[in-house]
Amino acid sequence: MKRKAGKIIFIIFILGFLVIQIYPVIWLFIASIKPSVELASAPFALPSKVTFENFIKVLSDGKIGGYMWNSLKVTGISLILIVALSATAGFAISKFKIRFNRGVYAFFTFGIMVPVQITLIPLFIFYSKMGVLNTSFSMILPQVGFALPLSVMMFVSFYSFVPNELIEASIVDGCSSYRIFGQIVFPLARNTVITIASMYSILIWNDFIFANTFISDSKAKTVAMGLKDYVGAFGNVDWGSTFAAIVISILPPLVIYFLLNKWVTSGMTMGATKG
User: Fold this and answer.
1) Among 16, 143, 144, 213, which residue has the fewest nearby CB atoms (within 10 Å)?
2) CA 51 to chain centre
3) Which residues are CB-neighbours of 57 under 8 A, at least 6 positions away?
4) What is the count of structural domains for the chain?
5) Angle between the 137-159 and 101-110 helix axes, to the nearest 10 degrees?
6) Rounded mean pLDDT of 48-54?
């Protein structure tokens, strides 16, 4: 009886947690198809009629497309660099017997403890002197830098499960280190690559702190920065257009998450299921 009561309480708790998590997203989609008048008078009620005027208004001005292209460019280049650098660094740290392996690994892990906020002013001064403010590079560099510590740790953890005998056999067969990594070891890390790519694609796409610090030119704004454009004079907000723009901006991360969720879960639990 006690076990059954505990199970019921657990289910109720989980359902309540899901409602708390899902309700804001559902409400956002509903608000985006409501007339602006209803948003002001009855923001939490169901729409009396469904309208796509908010989406038409957002798409017709052409700004959201440019913002999404900038976000896509920053996210894509950052992910390529994160995966390439962390995969190769993790392989070298895990499989190469060099003198300072532990020191290099400790250097990467130390980066996890560095707060993003303390780097903003030094980076802004550096970018200002180098003349790279209001460019994609100014956002890509810190995104890659702050993603490397955890990414390297995940690759090192995965490579520890790759048998050394497999690499030794490849060396005996005449494979170079580059061929061993590119054709044998890296393809095995598919789940880890997808986990890192999906996790950081969402974080980079939604980044606001770097964009707000280093970007002021509207041509270089990302989606997170572009949403501020819907705040008018004296703080007036076009809520209908704002909600429609938010819906458009969150669709790519949602699609990525649901498509790659299977591999993400597998990649995150791999270290716990082997050994």
Assistant:
1) 16
2) 31
3) 240, 241, 244
4) 1
5) 130
6) 83
